[in-house]
Amino acid sequence: MSDLTKLTIAAARDGLAAGDFSSRELTAAHITAMEAAEPLNAFITKTPEKAVEAATDSDTRRGKGEAGKMDGIPIAIKDLYCTKDVLTTAASHILDGFTPKYESTVTANLWAEGAVMLGKANLDEFAMGSSNETSFYGNVANPWRREGDNRMLVPGGSSGGSASSVASFSAMGATGTDTGGSIRQPASFTGIVGMKPTYGRCSRWGVVAFASSLDQAGPMTRTVRDSAIMLEAMAGFDPKDSTSVDLTVPNFEAALTGDIRGMKIGIPNEYRLDGINPEINALWEKGIDWMKSAGAEIVDISLPHTKYALPAYYIIAPAEASSNLARYDGVKYGLRVEGEDLNDMYASTRAEGFGAEVKRRLLIGTYALSAGYYDAYYLKAQKVRTKISDDFKEAFKQVDAILTPTAPSAAFAYGEKGDDPLEMYLNDVFTVPASLAGLPGISVPAGLSEEGLPLGLQILAKPFDEETVFKAAGVLEEAAAFAATPADWWRG
Amino acid sequence: MGMIVQGATGDWEVVIGLEVHAQVTSNAKLFSGSATEYGAEPNSQVSFVDSAMPGMLPVINEKAVEQAVRTGLGLKAQINKYSVFDRKNYFYADLPQGYQISQYLQPVVGEGKITIDLADGESREIGITRLHLEQDAGKSLHDQHPNMTLVDLNRSGVALMEIVSEPDMRSPEEAAAYVKKLRSILRYLGTCDGNMEEGSMRADVNVSVRRPGDEFGTRCEMKNINSVRFMQQAIIYEANRQVDILEEGGSVDQETRLYDPVKGETRSMRSKEEAHDYRYFPDPDLLPLEFDDAFIDGIRVTLPELPDDKKARFVSELSLSPYDAGVLVAEKEVADYFEAVAEGRDAKLAANWVIGELFGNLNRTGKPLGESPVSAEGLGSLIDLIKDGTISNRIAKEVFEEMFDTGKNAADIVEEKGLKQVSDTGAIEAAIDEVIAANPDKVAEYKGGKDKLFGFFMGQVMKATQGKANPGVVTQILRPKLDD
Amino acid sequence: MSLDKATVAKVANLARIKVEEKDLEPMAAELNNILGWIEQLGEVDTETTMPMTSVADMKLRWRADEVTDGGYAEEVVANAPSSEDNFFAVPKVIE
Ligand SMILES: [Mg+2]
Ligand SMILES: [Zn+2]
Fold first, then answer.
1. What ipTM goes with this model?
2. Is A348 a catalytic residue?
């Protein structure tokens, strides 16, 4: 039997349907790959026994002709999703030993469609990071390395473990969450497809909150088609989430017509950054050409407040986080560090339980909301956010989709960025604006850097128009014909 | 009227404002589907939302919105069709989320008013600043364990209406009248059961003192007082404490103080010493609360007659005295009972029976109205027996006690005990003749001009008939016989 | 606006994060670096702009007043570092 781990979800789905192999075989192959990829540290918790059990159940279902959309497909779950009776950590020391008694809506949707969980994927602590360096459970390695350079590269973040597991063929797909680029940027860094749906498309219920007005669940896969299949299984209205939108989930796969003739694609002038690596712009130009050749009409557009998206984001997200993370206080779950009294217990628990980046953001967020500063910071940022959102609304009067680079660089090595957090924040310069506006976006691997590392291009569309995103992404994927895979050095 | 504290340096006026937390009457909590019943086992009415498990989200209970609007209408207040839920951030053992979902800058209900009735028969209008919806916190038990505080989250997330008054009250009596009136309105509306012992109504009391006519002084807040009596005691203690400080040339610190009903004093709260910075911001898990005029109107048409209107109607239509009307409308249950009794009957007689005999017997036995052995229909049929001459008023009082003690109905008691009033002129005439024959000297005195003795003869005749003779008939026959 | 050591200590206390005295100064520098960068938001004219209140264009949904949850005290305290008879237990609080 050929290597089952190299199949796409679509191909595995067909193979399972045709009886070419069973989910048990497919799952076993991925468990082996996941174990072999231990050096990548992509998983915080592996659940191979549960996976085998779920695969067996899947085969039984299929035998009865009751297979769901993802039946028998082994995937990784970002460890930000609460999974019933399985350790859930958010990659934080403060959630030590936390085993939820409930299942997040998105994972429940996936299990209802038959998907098989391999384990819980590593991430930046509470999804705060762009390099997966802030996890209490250690750094995740990018399966890719620079040509002729053995240094370990970051997989991007915060869904770094998810990205690494998919790029290393340990999992056929993975769930991610995207607050400011946490699905799209790691997808770009690891040569896979990362999709952030419209805010409100996937339920946030049972996903550990970072910034409530920005967090969105989404799929990370190796192809656009797989992304469409997986999002369809994840998405849907959830009455338990007040920000979940009551819309029927379209057949996303059906949007992959390959036909974008007449589609108007916008190219935002403000995304041409000074001092950016020229190969990023070169790839973007290539992407524009591909879309034009496929019959799209290219339109220059302006998103004038782009420059202010990052600073606005770095007020809004930490402010919301400072409140969302107040519940980690040593009382109901997780770590407790005893203190002289209740307040000392809180302060000691939180000092030990949170890592440096989380603390930094909690302090910024607390300050931004505090008396006398609220108007200058939080309120101002929310007003700027309106402006950014309005920019997109204006643009979408002229165009159907927008094409940009996903990230300003390829993956970098651990420790390569200085210790200035601002330098790290700039990673999300192309992804954050759409997050602030709640738009759907996807990163598609489109080429290799001079150093042989994957680079992604991003497509954005109007709210709840994931179909246009997929349609354009499918064409981009085909034109780019990105077929490179990382050398599997981790197998030793 | 107002409370004046006489200091060595002159008079001080007391200024009081109240923030009342009223638990919304609803089956489920404000943002979760767990139950709200009082007195359940620890943490048994707690969902993962109420216990702030990671990833849990709030979804609003429509009943809470409806009740808030209903209350707003009852307080003749501005209803805001657009309001916002904010997070109030602070750390406390009984606050599992680390924030309370509340409403800050944009509450669901704006300015309104309450008319309070004072002992001297006067009324005063007290301004309502706002009413907003918010979550209740859990409960900390400090004395159940030698070195731990135990936390029960059953209350956590229960819907509260915080009703804030203007600083319009000037005495403990006015504050008490305000709380009583507010409770009465909430009960009429069915939006809060007003049970202070169970904590479904608690008051935060703001007290300051000033020279009469001066600017407001610095206030202190006493939190979570759950009895009207304690509230009045706390105000008196606190006003005097502040006057003492000011008279000694000191200044009052704005702070939260705890009223200790055992010691009868207020003290600074240790655990809440530090100044709070609640960092309010709109809750990103929720959207603004919006509804339209049709929603408000739909509630408006179901509003019951409220105590002030009912009182006015009892006075104008039923000709009750304002005092009686006030007593009868204070509790909706009483008013309903009275109206059932008065329906189709003499309202004044009904009022006398409810306020006199019914209240007297309830007091005697310590029973609440809800447990009264005499129903409104029962009392009504007793009054009917008086009206149709079956029994006298005096006998009726005996019958009522019997009804109250045994639960039997009036007609049966009258029948069993043979208490039916005698209107048979023959029997009465015979009794009168006997009385006249037995008291020749009194008859002589009467005829000699001592008119007052008529009452003596009436009494003797009633005695001879065991009180059953119809007094009207007796008079009719007795007078001509004596005047002969 | 520039954060000093005392402000950092105050904010850390509000956030209930214990910060060692020696770390206050470097932390203030770090936060000032970030806040300084954020200052550029001041360049945007937001005089007549409303703050963003919700990302999705929708109205708040209301649920029916029905008891649908709770009744599992053991599961509520299952992850608690300290509990007693289904109560959460915390260091004694003196009011
Ligand atoms: Mg208050
Ligand atoms: Zn309150």
1. 0.97
2. no
Q: Which of A22, A104, A182, A322 is catalytic?
A: A182
Q: How far is the CA of A439 from the centre of ligand 1 (A)?
A: 39
Alpha carbon of C72: minimum distance to chain A alpha carbons (Å)? 10
* Between B418 and A153, residue with greater pLDDT: A153
- Best probe of the C interface among A332, A392, A429, by most C CBs < 10 A, is A332
Q: What is the mean pLDDT of residues A219-240?
A: 98
Tokens 């402006």 -> residue:
A387
**A486, A491, A463: which is closest to A222 by C-alpha?**
A486
Residues of chain B with pLDDT under 70: 1, 270-275
> What is residue B420's predicted lDDT score, i.e. its pLDDT?
79
| Domain edges within chain C | 5-42
CB contact under 8 A, B285 and A212: yes
B65-68: which pairs have CB atoms within 8 A and are 24 or more residues apart?
B65/B108, B65/B133, B65/B289, B65/B291, B65/C62, B66/B299, B67/B24, B67/B25, B67/B26, B67/B159, B67/B161, B67/B189, B67/B191, B67/B192, B68/B24, B68/B108, B68/B109, B68/B131, B68/B132, B68/B133, B68/B161, B68/B191
Q: Find the mean pLDDT for residues A189-209.
A: 98
User: With the C-alpha atoms ordered C66, C72, C75, C76, is the resulting torsion angle positive or negative?
Assistant: positive
Q: Would you call C55 and A373 a contact, using CB atoms and an 8 Å cutoff? A: no
* pTM, rounded to two decimals: 0.92
Please answer yes or no on whether B53 and A102 come within 8 Å at the CB atom.
yes
CA dihedral B426, B430, B435, B441 (to 10 degrees): 100
In chain B, ranges of CATH 1.10.10.410 domains: 425-483
What's A3-258+413-491's CATH class? Answer: alpha beta
Q: Residue A431: is its pLDDT beyond 80?
A: yes
Architecture of domain B425-483: Orthogonal Bundle (1.10)
CA–CA min distance A369, chain B (Å): 5
Domain boundaries along the sequence of chain A? 3-258+413-491
